[in-house]
Queue: 3 jobs
Job 1
Amino acid sequence: MIVTAPLFQAYLECPTKCWLRFHAESATGNVYAEWVRAQNDLYRLDALNRLRALFATREQTTAPSISKQSKGATWQLATDVNLYVNGLDSHLQAVEKMPSAGARRTVRFVPYHFHFSNAVAKKEKLLLAFDAMLLSELLQCGVSLGKILHGDHHVIAKVRLSSLMKEVRRRIKDVTALLANPSPPDFVLNRHCPQCEFQLRCRKEAVDRDELTLLSGMTEKQRKRLHERGIFTVTQLSFTFRPRRRSWARRGKKEKFHQSLRARAIREKKIHTVDLVDPKLSGTPVYLDVEGMPDRDFCYLIGARVVTGPSPIQYQFWANDAGEEKHIWHEFLDLLATISDPKIIHYGSYEKDFLKRMQDRYGTPPQESTAGMAIERGVNLLSLIFAQIYFPTYSNGLKEIGRYLGFHWPEGARSALESIVWRSRWEVSRDPEGKQRLLDYNRLDCEALERVTGALLKLVRDAPSEGGSPQHDVVRASDIKREGLYKFKRNAFVIPDLGVINRAAYWDYQRERVYVKSSHKAKGRSRRKANRRSVMTLRPNTTIEYPRPRRCLRCQSKAVVRHNCKTKRIIDLRFMRHGLKRWVTHHVLRQYLCKSCGKTFTGHPLFTAHKYGSGFTAYMMYMNIELRLPQGHVDNHVERVFGLYMAPGSTKRCKSAMALSYRPTYDNLVKKLCSGPLLNVDETGISVRGHGGFVWVLASAEDVAYVYTPTREGTTIQGLLKDFTGVLVSDFYTAYDSIPCIQQKWLIHFIRDLNEALLKHPYDEELKRLGTAFADLVKPIVDTVDRRGLKKRFLRKHKAFVSRFYRRIDEASWTSDAGGKLVTRLQKNRNKMFTFLDFDGVPWNNNNAEHAVKAFATLRQVIDGPRSENGLLEYLVLLSLCETCKNKRVEFLDFLHSGSENIDEFAASQRRRGLHISRSWKMDG
């Protein structure tokens, strides 16, 4: 098998093209590809003549044999050089031998490459590097510099080849493997297709096979993800679209593009819409289309279709050469000045860039002028269609949408590339027919733009109101029903009366409207339910009357008399050995009057204004935070069990009061964690009033604290840990990397990602080797931890095996994308993956933080999106205390009921009493 330069060039453009050329498949032809080949041939002859003119005849040679002995040859320019080495073949256009400048400097060989375009793409540099690699192997010396002669002005671009040769060697391996395979590669349409001689063949095959690659804008990464899910065709993709309700934060913002919705539009052959926004195209429409030569940065034709009445007028401004570009630009500005309230409408970014470039090059018209205002208010029609309107076409190109709407171009006008060919041929022949062909092509584009604009305005005009009947050939994404199995849902009845009968069979309809009218018992239950909120009179269990003060609190006079009397009932719970009892205390607090100074005061300053006692609030928070009961369920439970009427929001108010009282305890907990020797960190998401937020978990072996931030930016966590000097155990989120401390990354997190990659790529042998090597490294370490614990004197013996593992992955070459990403992560975190081998008590996983995250995730399902950020912060304060109590093996309820504000002191007192093992710990253990 011989890999030639044309095959290598074809591989750079498209692997399928390379395989088809190698197997001599018949081409369908392409006007632009043939023109490019002819232009390159003509340019090569002209460039060789120019290059030969720089050297004397005796210094030139043709088709020499290249070998190590060529270093002593007398020629300085060699042309038509054939290179063949190790199954690689190329025809080098020219090579220059530069003599040494000193006694110790060797001769340098500089290969040349010729290209007619004014722009040099990376493909041309890689082709030059391919020739240079063969040349260096034949000469047995390095070739580090190459030159590309290109463009109308024969500019010489110097190219450094050392880094490009590495890429060429890697791609040659891919080409060899591709050509050795008897079956063609995975079918992919790319940007090179309009320039390829196999375009029609590949397009027809893709349509027949319904390939995903037909959908423009779909990246290779997206296709791989779909293939991993078993989705290989456009039809399969069309069934995956699921309409989602837009979040509160996304309302008013532009919706992202859905390839699945485009696929659905193609399958159903109907237009699908997401948001139909009025384009507000008021004024006189001016449909603009510009033709140019991209590589020469030159626009030669400006087409403007002006609609001022029933019959539009087409204006076209033609430039014979680049010198007339300024003239046609000013003619276009003069046209805008004569139009009343012009509204420029164009399609795509080419015209937008043209308007900006012309203003930068030839001056901007006055902003208050008609032309200046028209340019500033120009509308890109594609921006109104993208992600909002899905036509049943494979792309949003003007020609595809225009053809769907019934507009037709001549057979020879497939793409804008053909107009480049026509213009180049006209510049040589000055044929009037060639010019007319370009003018007709430009006029048709303007007419197509007018057709698409009219279709867009019609969609907006005919769009039904909310809840109205949709158009026959237009589908709103919001009207698409998300079908699912085994779900309760309302049936859609064809006959409306059947729907009325069906609604009468629902459970709540029966109880609230039918049974109430049918049974006296049901009527009684209904009345009792309405009178449920009756005011209850609670008999006090004890009465406390505060003693009379002896003296006035202000003047210390003994002339004190009774003035008024206040009473307060405090509802509390009395904790007994095997249960709880409602306990109502009647407080009698008298007011007294000092006859000397006239001051009124109470006899006891400790009188509380709270309705519920500390035991009652502790029990409510125990059910809400530790037992994960919703606040409404807590209110119902207290009402049913203790016979108390709980006003709506009672648990919420108790939570706010208790969180406020324990806020200093929480702050001390956070401070203790941020100054400790070891800290585990993790984060998880939360929704607050429709906005996304994040809760960060700080955990150690005994303490836990939760911190809320509106975003995932690491500024908050970095601020908390700016003075942290211990070991930080975390995942691979980059925000942790900037914290100046010793870090240990989760090995278990990497192992899960490695396993997921293996499941997605079961036939990736490189990935399997990496997984096996990593398992062989970590398994003995885990065995040592199980036997000896986290002690560095037993673990440091494994450091030599870690170094050997990294040397192996550094020396190996990784061609697998999935394996390469994992290796890059290993190399990036080389000093953070096995830190625990050098410290005592540092874990290789993040169990502490993950366990705390699970606790918050369970509570998150209960609170179901707090109404405010303050409500979430109150939950986090109490949950931090709850999880810390669990880790210290004390009861959260006992701690709240005790009135203590220091968990460590409370745990010590429990241990002294022999009560340090909590009931929940016994159940878990």
Note: The chain has four domains: 3-180, 284-389+396-462, 542-553+565-657, 663-910.
Job 2
Amino acid sequence: MIPLPIDNILPLFLKTAAQTSNTILQAPPGAGKTTRIPIALLDIIPPDAGAIIMVEPRRLAAVSAAGWMARELGEDAGKTVGYSIRFESRVSAMTRIEVVTEGILIRRIQSDPLLEGTAMVIFDEFHERSVNMDLGLALCLDAQRQARNDLKILVMSATLDCEELSALMDNAPVISSAGRGHPVREIYLEDSGKTRLEQRVAAAIRRALRETEGDVLVFLPGSGEIRYTASLLESDDLEKQGISVRQLYGDLPFEEQQATILPSGRRKVVLATSIAETSLTIDGVRVVVDSGFSRRMRHDPSNGLNRLVTIRESRASAIQRAGRAGRTAEGICYRLFSRHTFNAMVSKSPPEIVETDLSPLVLELAAWGVSDPLELSWIDPPPEAAVESARRFLADAGALDSAGRITPAGREMVCFPLHPRLSRMLTRSRELNCLKLGCALAALLSERDVIRRGSPGDGFVLSDIRDRLETLWRFASGEKVVSDADPAALANALRVCQQFYQLVGIKKNGACVRWDNDAAARLLLSVYSDRVAMRRGGENERYLLSSGRGVRFPGSGVASAPLFIVALSVGGGERREGTIRLWQEVEESQIREELGARIERRENIFWDIREGRAVAAAQERLGCLTLSSSPFVPKPERLLPALLEAVRSSGLALLKPSERFFQLQSRIELLRREFPNAGWPDCSDAALLNMLEGWLGPGLFGIRNSRQLTELDTESLLLGRLDYRFRRDLDDLAPAYLTVPSGSRVRLDYCQGYAPVLAVKLQEMFGLGQTPTIARGKVAVLLHLLSPAGRPLQVTRDLKGFWENSYHQVKREMKGRYPKHPWPDNPMHSLPTRRTKRRI
């Protein structure tokens, strides 16, 4: 065997693993941990102790790892080393090392909590932190602590916080190994931001082919970018140059994925997603082209929808990607971003458990007997909001009871290798006696789309799930299919459909089924009740989901959009409307039949802002969708909550309060401020809005529209907050009017600021030496001394000072302008008047 860095620590590792229950092995890619460690463990785990199960994050990685180990032993897979993946297994009675995917491990431990016949479980590539890897470790640790203290657990990782993981695994020892790394030269290609990503990637590939030797591994965000980049390279005639362009992403048929990683004798350009970052070995790769982006699925617990987002990769991912070029010799990594961008990247990607839909995890935990995820051991506990969202969905699907315990239906659902939605579809299809249809729909919805998706500008054809089922039926029957169908995807969907047939007990080679409108509608409605959507008004392309989110058809929508659809697949951004990717029309009668128990019938009374009136309607609602609405006339007292809420939302604006209201409000607030211990009520806007029921409610009886609201005597209603004592003191302490020396009653304006304003003609204040006060002398009024024409001449709180100083300047300026009015030399000792000299 070829020497590998992991060989140097094998004696220490085996000694540690033999003496402890839990061990952590940290080794970078290329060290040889995946292929050497399981074989070495055969020396310390005798055959009668049980088998070694090694968990890989992907099917391709599991098959590849098993093949490598089998070849090192000079055997074929299925003897000493075997593998089990979904719908495929190569093991025998002599198998001692079984490589499995995460889902297989979880199914096995659920059916056999003691993992009898298993001596050790190895979690490989744990740093990828998939939710199923976290769940598998949590279940194994729980089984170990509860009943299997002899079960050994090994976690192998390239980059991870091993101190935190060690504490989780009862202070497991950490063994570290060097990697088999060769120098990798990094070339940063600046991003101008003006060129499409795929075009820049294609240019970098052409440069790499000119400047380097060996295979080229290219990292792109997703399958769409991969296919477009491949189309850009077609014009280069690379095949004639002995160079093959291969694609590698999760939705490809498994056989194509396997063919891509195997040696071919020709130089290869492999266009891959992050699937090729760590868990796969592609021999011959000397060059990496890194786009700098990846695509992740994120779940929004508030509406139950997933969305694919393209994000800048983490620094850890960028380092992992570059390392793929240095596995066998010196390599080169072309990075389509600057060094500054690299330094600004987040250090590592968040684990999947904090971003993804947790419905499968919560169902698995319920099957394990755990209703609270915190009962198990997690590096990152599942977020509470996502767990609660998952519980609601599973309860609606009948998988959990009101206490969060798994139901018999949930027990049946958890046995299928599917998301709980589609598991429920299979169980519901049994109830409706349409198992074949359920299997076909589950296959179409769980696998790669059988219709190639374009964009609206590229002749995009919007079609529904019925078109896909009919296409699958024609393909299975040997008939011609539509031009935009994907033969490989159709073959894969048909194969998965047949495998589902076996799971539910249908004859192995049962024929594919045609569309049954009523049965299909009931199946889809039963598992996508939160995706029922209703057309908005007269618009063809815009819909509202029952969960409350807006969605729309891409482009110009459809020629004649149905009133109701089930939006089976929704994409789009976080804040804007989602885009309907896959759908199916349903009838209102079908909704009522299948979801009748969830239709809420209630009388809804609300304020219509546009019409300016209270509206009462008897409604039937499915979530946020109004299926029917008919008006009725409610009793006056039932209108009160809607009226109060409308006034509260408007901030009192709907009332259009009078000037007298605002003056009264300010007078009360002034006294509350000056006499804090007297008990004056809080009449600020905030307080009035909080206590609308108390002071405004009695006046709303019989009110139905905005005109009647504006006619309310708001001053009297506000005055009703004061008892007799406060009303008596109000006029005494904060009078609405003051009598000035001339005998005039002049209104005080309390709304201008801290002190009330007394706007009065200057001549009417003759003979008064001190500024008037209110509130028992606590507050001096603010005098606006006016000219005979009513224009302000002086603003002051010091009347005496004005007479002694500023008055004489005002007199000189105003005497000539207003000669008919008195301007005495000694105003403090003159008679006040509101008349001219002649009238005096």
Note: The chain has a mean pLDDT of 89.
Job 3
Amino acid sequence: MRNGKIIGVISIKGGVGKTTAVANLGSSLVKQFNKKVLLVDGNITAPNLGLHLGVLNAQYTLHDVLFNNVPVWSAIRKSEYGFDVLVGCLSPKKNTKGRINPYKLHNRISQIKGEYDYILIDSSPNLNDEMLSTMIASDELLVVTSPDYPTLSCTMQAVKAAKERRTPIMGLVLNKVRDKAFELSKEDIESATGVPVLSIIKDDVAVLEALSNTVPASLASPRKDFTIQYNALAARVCNEDYSDPRLSSKILGLFKK
């Protein structure tokens, strides 16, 4: 039995890289810290975690679990990347009847919590029952955002909803940062949301290239800045030490000393 923790990864805006963050954080927890990890696609209406990982024809999915067709273990499959996955059905209307109850997610995931170190739930990008079910199922939340005003507004709504549900927020993941003067700063975002930024992930076309090959970008490009940043985020999540292997960081550290 493991002391499992369920972390919901949320945003109220599509395109900020939430699913990419789930896949890469999961791979970093496995590869760098030897954790047992399960990724769950909590985006019930429009699941796409399987598309990111090349899992297109799962025999059973989260939809089957929530419709009581199979027990949760029957729908979990091992990925080639070291973590387990529980994907959603890409065409649920063909395989299920009736309306799904997303609030069953908490009960189903709780059944297997002790088998994993971390369960990461990729939430719906809308403030609806599906996102609320992720909040209810999670012990803590990570909120993915990007450094622009429209996303900041949505992030503030997500933080407000989480606080109303009394689900603790671990912090923000500031994604797709290009280091441009017109971007909102880390301090701007923390001030507006009242939540600390845990990680700043640089934008890189290599992330899109890895997505086209259905491979987590941190595995496809282990020396890239964004991979180091995901590794550092994983270290903060599991409260372990991580040393930045980049030569530039070591030189900068010497100057700071």
Note: The radius of gyration is 18 Å.
